[in-house]
Design a protein that fits this description.
The protein has helices at residues 2-18, 48-60, 196-199, 228-231, 262-267, and strands spanning 26-28, 36-39, 45-47, 73-77, 80-85, 112-114, 135-137, 158-160, 181-183, 215-216, 238-240, 248-250, 270-272, 283-290, 294-301, 307-316, 319-326, 333-340, 345-352. By secondary structure, it is an alpha/beta fold. It has an 8-stranded mixed beta sheet with strand order 2-4-5-6-7-8-9-10, with no helix packed on it. Strands 16-15-18-19 form a 4-stranded antiparallel beta sheet, with no helix packed on it. Mean pLDDT is 87; it is low at 1-18 and 257-267.
Length: 354
Amino acid sequence: MKFFLQYVLIFSFCIQLVFPQCDSSYSYINDFPSSVTILANGDSCFFDNDLIALNDIITLNQLSYDTPLHLGTQTWLNGRLRFLVAGNYWGGVESPLSILPESIGNLDDLRALYLEWNNLSSLPESFYQLTNLMSLYISNNQLEEIGEGIGNLNNLYFLDLGYNQIPSIPDSFCNLEDLTYWWMFNNELNQLPDCICDSLNINWNDADAAGYPYFAIGGNNLCENVPDCIANSEYFHISLDQFYYTWPVADSQNCDGLYNSNEFISSIDFNLSQPYPNPFNPKTIITFEVSKKTYLQLDVFNLIGKKIENIKVGHFEPGQHKAIWNGQNYPSGVYLIRMKTEDYSQLRKVILMK
C-alpha cells in the first residue's frame, strides 16, 4: 500500500508537470499555432472568456479556423489576450469581418487591436468595455457611427479611424485625454464637439520623428463651425495615402465652394473625387481634377497591392476629367483607384458588389 501511494503521488506530480493546473476560468491548451505569442509565465492557460470572444468572431463571420487561437495574430500575457491583429491582410484574417459579437467586450485586458480593411459598419455597445485599449486601428472599414461609449476608452493613445463613413463624433470623445495620435481623414464628418480643443492634448500641427502627423482630418465635410484647433491645423486638408500610409496627400474638405478662396485653391493642384456609385456593379464613374497640365496615371489595384488595370494615362489639361471603370471581369470585393502624377498620389476605395 505504501508503495502504491508513493506511486500515485509521483504520477500526480508528473501529470502536473506535463499538464499544468489552470484556474477554473482558464483552459489548458498546449497545441497552438506559431501566430500565437505567450509572454511572461510561458504557460498554456488561456482565459475562457477571451477564447469565447475569438470563437464568436469566427462563427459569426463564417471563418474556417479550427480553434480560436488561429484567428489572426495574437499575443497573450498571464493567460489574457493583449494584442490582436485581425485586419484583412497577411497576418490577419482570411476574409473580411462584417460583424463583431457582443462578446467582444470580454477582451477587457486587450491593449492593441488591429481591424483594418474589413467590412465593419458598426461596433456593438460592448466594444466600449475595452477600457484598457491603448491602440485601435480600424481604418478602411464602412463604419457609419461612433457610439457615446467611445469616451469609456480613456486609455487610448493611438486611434486610426481613417477611410470610413462616420458623419459625427459624440461629445464623450472629449474624455480621451491621453489620446496622442488621432487620424480621422476621409470620412463623412460634418461636425465636431465644441469641447475638442479644450479637452484633448493632441499636437495639432506637428509630425513625429518618423514623419507621421499626430493628427490629420482631410477629406471630410467640415465646412462651418469648425473648432479653432481643427480649422487652424496644418493637417486640416491632409490625409495619408490609403494603401500604405507612407506619405501625406492633399485632400480638401468637401464644401461645395465654401473654400473657394484663391489662396486655398492655388494650394490644391490635384484632386481625386469619391467614385460614384460606390458600391457599384459593374461600372463606377471616377472624376479627377488638375489645376495645371500634367502627366497622370489612373490605375486599379486589388487589396494585396497588385495593379490589375490601367484606366487612363497621358498628359491632361487643367480642369475636371472623368473616367469609367468597368469591373465586370473581376470578382466582388474591395479595390483601390489610384491617381498618380510625378510628385503626387491619391487613392480611393471602391466596392464591387455583384
